[in-house]
Amino acid sequence: MLYHIVHTALSIIGVLLNSFMMYLAITKSPKIMRSCSAIITIKTSTDILASVMNFFVIQRIITDGSSILVIPTGPCTNFGKTACYVGHMLMLCLLEYNLVWMISSYIFRYYILYVREPPIKNLVFVAFCLSIPSIIHMAIWFSLYKPNHETTTTTAFGLTATDMVLSGKIVYRSALTLIIQLFATAVLVVIAYIWIRETLCGFAIKMGAVKNDMKNLNKRLVKVITFQVFLPSFIFLGVIIFAAMFAKNVDYRYAQYSVTIIFMFSPICSPFSYILFVPHYRNVITGKKKKTKADLNACRPRVYGV
After folding, report:
1. CATH number of the CATH domain containing 42
2. For residue 33, is pLDDT > 80?
3. What is the value of pTM for the model shown?
């Protein structure tokens, strides 16, 4: 089935690309880039988990406004509806957490530039604290979900008795809530991007003609975040398609395949923001051994009067 092949391929690509990026961040970053390495490692680890959950569920989402159906067709079907619901919720929550971590990484960049380099243990602690709301949120929905209480009629959507379908009030409310949260968080990423870009540009102006390598560093950081701001566009597009299906403006027979496939491009494209625009990682791929001073100082704390 083409749909399974596409989802499997996207999941494998997502795992491989982010694993490779994690490898570069952990093993190929100089000691002075430890904080940046930790930020990238946390980001790639959540992208890997999102890719794994996508393969675990391989879901389609159908809605006509009055109901929302999640049709899992992945390995989770071997473990029952509850396992598929857990996988469905985990994937959406991981996508949201990725966006939250992007916002946090922008704040960390500001902190590194104007204050000092945060210890890795602090970054890990912040990452854990940021995950607590999602964990609590998921735990509440998991406790409310009862697979035997599903009563939504599925024949209207061309589904057969052999299809596993997650439906009912809890699925409707939880899916709608998370998709709205995804959209809202993506908007916050764009706002945070505008803020950090202005901050980096302002920082470069204040430096004046101090050091060319520092100017080059800030230009690279601007390129990285400019690339990253396109990642929420996949979330926007997926949510827009879902909203159009919800409002009955598009045929569910086609839109049901699009939402989760489009969502998956966010974790797949994420590693390229570092591979393409951070010379230290790009040189590892191209085989170049030259390391500039700016590369080695990529995350060095810079304190200037403000």
Report:
1. 1.20.1070.10
2. no
3. 0.86
